[in-house]
Amino acid sequence: MTDLTYSEEFKYTSTNPYHDKLEEFKGFVYRDHEAEGLKGKWNSEVFEREAPLCLEIGTGYGHFMMEYSEKNPEVNFIGLDYRFKRSFSLAKKLSTHPTKNFKYLRAKGERVHFLFNESELDRMFYFFPDPWPKARHQKKRLFQAAFLDQAYKVLKPGGKIFIKTDHDGYADWMIEVMDNHEQFEVVMATKDLRAEHPEHFLAAFTTKFEKIFLKQGIKIKAFELVSKKKD
């Protein structure tokens, strides 16, 4: 079966009841193709202000999204996740959050080029994704050459991707993908973030999952990529 995720032919389909429940938060939540209709309009029509546009792929329970939005009110922040029930739980939390400089998408990270115009994004965050450790499932990993191609398109010149993972195998996979991809410069790569780069931005906060990994003695792998795109 052909994977249509990256193509115009892809269609979101769902009978999950949480899809309809998310309608309750339509003031800041966009579901499936709703978000794709806003491509190129995020700052001008959605946020209605010019500001650095940031995207977090795999927002999870929203700890980083809420903390970063609150500490950086000057940015326009977009969180994205694909799971229904977790998206609804996070939307409830976001509805009472003190800052409102964010939007939330129930969408797929593989479709960033349908969500954003070329050079529309300033920063991208990708923290503790599902590593899909079994060999037969690794094709489901988001971090692949096709994804980096799309990330390069939607990020501005000098735009950045920040990554953290607990999984050694996925980190090695990422390194291999980056080694074969010339559109980004890897300005920071570590297999032990807090020991080797304790002053780095990525070491300045700890997500819910990260706290668990650190207690287990798992070292955090991290990367910072900068787009080589020219103005």
Automatic annotation (TrEMBL):
Q: Which family does it belong to?
A: Belongs to the class I-like SAM-binding methyltransferase superfamily. TrmB family.
Question: What name appears for this protein in its UniProt entry?
Answer: tRNA (guanine-N(7)-)-methyltransferase
What pathway or pathways are given for this protein in its record? tRNA modification; N(7)-methylguanine-tRNA biosynthesis
Q: Which organism is it from?
A: Halobacteriovorax marinus
Give UniProt keywords alphabetically. Methyltransferase, S-adenosyl-L-methionine, Transferase, tRNA processing
Which EC main class describes this enzyme? transferase
Q: Could you say which EC number(s) this protein's record lists?
A: 2.1.1.33
Pfam name, any one: Methyltransf_4
PANTHER family according to UniProt: 3-DEOXY-D-MANNO-OCTULOSONIC-ACID TRANSFERASE/TRNA GUANINE-N 7 - -METHYLTRANSFERASE, PENTACOTRIPEPTIDE-REPEAT REGION OF PRORP DOMAIN-CONTAINING PROTEIN
